[in-house]
Amino acid sequence: MSPQVHHVTHPLIQHKLTLMRQKDRSTNSFRRLLNEISMLMAYEVTRDMPTSMIEIETPLETMQAPVIDGKKTVFVSIMRAGAGFLDGMLNVVPGARIGHIGLYRDPKTLVAVEYYFKMPADMHERDAIVLDPMLATGNSAVAAVDRLKETRPKSIRFVCLLAAPEGLANFHANHPDVPVYVAAIDRQLNEHGYIVPGLGDAGDRIFGTK
Ligand code: URA
């Protein structure tokens, strides 16, 4: 596996993901589990976030203590399923800024088409963490990161729940500099571009639209 792939195998994440895959799981439960997993993945993806020292007063004395500057982080949600990852990430880094990229997959060609793009100002000072639960063909992820790179963020990481091997290969061929954090790498894509065994359409399951 490429050193740029961080397979997050923590048992809590794996357990919750198994529950999410079950076809009879309710929308409410699916969303809650995704929220919990995103908090745990946030812990992993922010592991080497830079800290700076500030002076504080404890009840006993003055000390120098580390803090992170959450405002320097931008969570970039790929609409619409990326929204399912946002709440959990924001629970852990509440000061983060949020960007959105709207892409849809052309059902015939599976190519990503952009319909929305909005980032905070001063991206060159920020670390971007791109969120999309499913890295399937990789076309949306590649297009999103292509576009994001035009804003010149300090760094980019990509977080997903499930990936197909084909999607990971496509993503790395186009963005070898961007690390991917993933909870599970499934067997393959089917003829409709779905990850199998997978968990179905993440957007529909998060929003209860099917
Ligand atoms: N998007 C999804 O929501 N599910 C897949 O399996 C592939 C892409």
Automatic annotation (TrEMBL):
Matching SUPFAM superfamilies: PRTase-like
A GO biological process held by the record: uracil salvage
Pathway: Pyrimidine metabolism; UMP biosynthesis via salvage pathway; UMP from uracil: step 1/1
Reactions mediated catalytically: UMP + diphosphate = 5-phospho-alpha-D-ribose 1-diphosphate + uracil
GO CC field: cytoplasm
Phosphoribosyltransferase domain: residues covered: 9-209
Binding site for 5-phospho-alpha-D-ribose 1-diphosphate: R80, R105, D132, P133, M134, L135, A136, T137, G138, N139, S140, D201
Cofactor section: Mg(2+)
Co-factor: note: Binds 1 Mg(2+) ion per subunit. The magnesium is bound as Mg-PRPP.
Keyword Phosphoprotein: no
Segments traversing the membrane: none
UniProt entry keywords in alphabetical sequence: Allosteric enzyme, Glycosyltransferase, GTP-binding, Magnesium, Nucleotide-binding, Transferase
Activity regulation field: Allosterically activated by GTP.
Molecular function in Gene Ontology: GTP binding; magnesium ion binding; uracil phosphoribosyltransferase activity
Chain positions recorded as uracil binding sites: I195, G200, D201, A202
InterPro entries in UniProt: PRTase-like (IPR029057), PRTase_dom (IPR000836), Upp_B (IPR034332), UPRT (IPR005765), UPRTase/APRTase (IPR050054)
CDD domains in alphabetical order: PRTases_typeI
Functional note: Catalyzes the conversion of uracil and 5-phospho-alpha-D-ribose 1-diphosphate (PRPP) to UMP and diphosphate.
Similarity annotation: Belongs to the UPRTase family.
Name under which the protein is recorded: Uracil phosphoribosyltransferase
Organism: Piscinibacter terrae
Gene transcribed to yield this protein: upp
